[in-house]
Amino acid sequence: MMALSDLIPEGGVHADLGVSSRKQALQMLAEQAAAITGLKARPIFDAVLERERLGSTGVGEGVAIPHARIKGLERVIGLFARLRNPVDFDAIDGRPADLVFLLLAPEDAGAEHLKALARVSRLLRREDMRERLRSAPDADALQAVLGGEPASDVA
Question: Domain locations in the chain?
Answer without folding.
Answer: 4-149
